[in-house]
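A quick aside before the break. I want you to see a complete sequence-to-structure record at least once, exactly as it would be stored in a machine-readable document. Don't worry about memorizing anything.
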Amino acid sequence: MNQPYYRHMEQAAAAISSAPVRNALIGVIALQRTLDDVTRSSVANVRNDKDLSPAGKTKKVRDVIGPRAWEVIKAKMLARRLAEHIEEKRAALKLPEIDKADAAGAILRNRVRDQLTGKTNQELRGLIPAMSPLFLTTILEAPELIGADAQTVDIARNAASELAHPGMTATLDAERDAVNLLVNATKAAAKTYGELGELPNDTALEGFLNERVADQRHIAAEVERIVRNEP
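That is the input. The structure line, written in C-alpha cells, reads:
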C-alpha cells in the first residue's frame, strides 16, 4: 500500500463517530502498515535465502507470519461482528404497534391500501418520503396486498423508523458506511497476509489461521467487549 492510501484511510478513520468502529479501523491500518513494512521485508529475506529449498522457504515464511495470526483473526472477527451489530441495532428500532382492536384504524388502512394498490414499486418508492405514518404502517402491515417488493418494504421501514426515532436512521446509515470501509480494509489486510504466507485462497488462509490459533475464545470475548463498547 502506498502512503496516499494510508493518509486517506487515517482521515476517514478520524471522521468516524463510533468509537468501536473508528478504533477498529485504526487497528487495521496499523496492521496493514506492519505487514507492508516489517513483515514483507522479513519474508523477502527468507525468499532470498539460497540455502533453503522452496519447501523450506515456504515453511520459514509461514513461521515468520505465524505470530501475527491472532491479529488477523481479531481484525476479521471484529469487522464481522461490528457489521452484524449495526443490523442488530437497526432491527431493535421499534415501530408503533398496530392496534388490531381498532376498527376505525383498520378501515383507514383499507382505504389507504385501495389508494396504493396498482402502483408500481418505483412509484411507491417515490411516494414514500412524503408518506404519513398511516400510509407507511399500511405498507408494512401487509405489503403483499399492494404488491410491494422487499426493497420497497425496506425503504418504507426506514422511513417509518425515521419518523419514530428522528435522526437514528441517518446515524445508523453513517455507521454502516463506516463499517463497510472497515470490512474492505480488513479484507485488504487479510489478502496481504495470505500473499506473504503463500496461501493461495481464502480457504487456505482460514486453515492456516485456525491452525496457528486453535482456541479463539479469548479473542471472541475481547471482540464482544469492543463491539458492546464495554471497558
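Two observations worth writing down. The CA atoms of residues 135 and 198 lie 57 Å apart. The chain has a mean pLDDT of 94. We'll return to this after the break.
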